[in-house]
Amino acid sequence: MAYQSYQQRQPSYASCVTSLRTSLSYLQSSVSTLDAGISDFPRLTSLLKTVRHYELIPQPTLAAAEASLRDEIGPFISLLLDRAEKNIDRQARRIETLKARAELNAGRLSHYTSEGASSAQQERQRRQQEREREKKLKAARSRRLDGSAALRAKVVAQRKEALKYSVERLEMEVQQKERELRKRLERH
């Protein structure tokens, strides 16, 4: 009986050995496949190496840096904004002044063209005569006055001239407004 059991076991040992050899050949082919797969591993590690392009910082640190920058730059920005607003206001006033001046000049032009060339020439001659008279008076006064008095007289004369011009301009503006009012009344 013992012999029979040995013979029965022998084929089972043979099948184990063949299974083991088959497994060994599979293992050998797996190792060769792995060798082929990882033979390029050093090159792949250099290719796939991660490079840190930026650094992550915590939110409180970022908020502190922003606040510091805001505190540092804030006054300059507000100063520049104030300057910009002042310049914008100044330009807006200048535009309004130029518009008013253009309307006034248009009124003067229409006034001169409506009255005719002869009245315009008479007006120019009258103004020229007034200027010549004023020049003669200024020359006579300056001869009699000393340095500081002559300077004061010159300032007063300049103010007088400026006021004359202002009065003339205001008269022209009144005439312009009257014409505009008449046109509005004619439309209605």
TrEMBL record:
GO cellular-component term (any): spindle microtubule
GO biological process: attachment of spindle microtubules to kinetochore
Subcellular location: Chromosome, Centromere, Kinetochore; Cytoplasm, Cytoskeleton, Spindle; Nucleus
Matches recorded under Pfam families: DASH_Spc19 (PF08287)
Highest rank taxon of the organism: Eukaryota
Keyword field contains Nucleus: yes
InterPro entries: DASH_Spc19
Composition bias, Basic and acidic residues: 123-137
Keywords from the named record: Centromere, Chromosome, Cytoplasm, Cytoskeleton, Kinetochore, Nucleus
Family: Belongs to the DASH complex SPC19 family.
Name by which UniProt lists this protein: DASH complex subunit SPC19
Organism expressing this protein natively: Podospora anserina (strain S / ATCC MYA-4624 / DSM 980 / FGSC 10383) (Pleurage anserina)
